[in-house]
Amino acid sequence: MQWTLDQLRQFVLTAESGSFSEAARRLGRAQSAVSTAIGLLEADLGVELFDRSRRNAQLTDAGALLLLEARELLRQGQSLEQRALSLSAGGEAKLTLALDEALPDTAVGTLIREIAQRFPDLELTLLNGTATEVAEYVDQQRAQMAIHFVRGALPARFDQRHMGTVSQGLFVPMGHPLTRNETVQRRDLVPYRQLILHADDVHETAYSPKVWRADSFYALARMVAYDLGWAILPVNIATHDSYRQPLQQLDCPSLALPQLSVRVLWCQGWQPGPAANWVQARFTELLR
């Protein structure tokens, strides 16, 4: 078959306008040229698209079915053209982004929705994991860049950029004995098990002689909900509504907990394209 997209456009426009002459007027062509193009299309397809025994351009049954196919092919052709224009302008064809599972849900959800609106032709892959895992995804070249909570210094093979901060706090299950006082001191924490985030080469301070560790903030929060101990958690994780019982934040001024820093990282030598640069800038805004 030797039909062209231009013939399909003339076929669709004629069907939609109901007239060869109206289609020709919209296309800025002679009516005879449009009639000839559709006649060649019919010959190539081996079916009649219009019933020419009628005054207006009336579709045959076969023409009505093929009109649906023609519209879809034109849509795909337009998508191909838009993607090619994006690529020729320096846009990425694909982006694999690794995200720390502990990042605020609201910010991540907004980011993903806006990527879909702003870069509709981008082939996006999202990988999720702990802060350590998403950094490994970049190191293994499974992802171009990762956004995660800072967990110690990065090897020299990475580049990084600070994006913002997230609040953290000291949490126990609702009704825990430590909730009886408005404020607690570090010595008050000592009798109870401390639940600490585990990460290679990062040593968190232990305030209790009894310690359990896990590599996920969500795992720690679930352990707190089961009254297995207390933990320092990102506030967005601790206030999630999926736990066995609500967690309660304690006021412990002597801990002086800092904000958790969030960064984006990538391997040295990689050049972020327009989509990757926009993701970095937009997520920085969302963390504010």
Automatic annotation (TrEMBL):
Name of a matching Pfam family: LysR_substrate
Family annotation (CDD domains): PBP2_LTTR_substrate (cd05466)
PANTHER family: HTH-TYPE TRANSCRIPTIONAL REGULATOR (PTHR30126), LYSR FAMILY TRANSCRIPTIONAL REGULATOR (PTHR30126:SF91)
Gene3D superfamilies: 3.40.190.290, Winged helix-like DNA-binding domain superfamily/Winged helix DNA-binding domain
Keyword terms: DNA-binding, Plasmid, Transcription, Transcription regulation
Record-annotated HTH lysR-type domain positions: 3-60
Species whose genome carries this gene: Comamonas endophytica
UniProt-recorded name of the protein: LysR family transcriptional regulator
InterPro entries in alphabetical order: LysR_HTH_N, LysR_subst-bd, WH-like_DNA-bd_sf, WH_DNA-bd_sf
Family: Belongs to the LysR transcriptional regulatory family.
Keyword RNA-binding: no
